[in-house]
Fold:
Amino acid sequence: MKDVRETLLERTSVRRYEREIIPQETMDLIYEAVRNTPTSYNGQQFSVIDIDDQALKEELYALTNQKQLKTCNRLLIFCSDYNKIARLAEKKGLVVPPFTDTMDGVTIGIIDASLAMMSAVVAAQASGLGSNCVGYLRTVDPKRVAELLKLPKGVFVVCGLALGIPREHPDLKPKQPKELVFFRNEYRQDTDKMVEELEAYDNTVSQYNRTRAGGTSDNDWVAHILNYYDHAMAYRIKDYLRDQGYDIQR
Structure:
């Protein structure tokens, strides 16, 4: 078992995995870490679909073209889930307020599922597994993914997590320096200095992408991320959420 420093500070995104099966005791640890995740109100507004069916992984790969979905040993799909509490409330004759029709309701489910996924990442990394978070499962074809996973109303995909014995050891990606992440008591006011630091970070990312092992590119940081934003403008997530029972009104 890796120590906490190695687990958190040497984590990389792994996309190629060995064919070995993940030991059940490791999966049990991941399950328990996920179950112990802190959630809003202890409402536990999330659920996880654990996929070991290779045919299903191949179908999800065909949708996304994300190779880690078919090469991983286990694929965990983290979902926002208000279905469970609604079903119990129905049985007990309780009225369920239209919380899923609010941005707060949507946000809480996403936060709970995201925290649960990070618990799984930490447990997996500590156990020597490789992992990769796959957000594209949320946006590529939400209706088809919901059909494949048989998601009921009140449930939608937040993110996938590929797990397996790593076949590769990618270089550690440069992250923003702490001065750009942590601000004391208020948001940073020295905008010009902050932009200079952001530009330096942008150059660091460009250098990393030009020299990294396992495939290089000419990507910088800012233009690459803005290109993603532009591409994501075509997603119709609000329509999908409405189909899943989240009719956002306020």
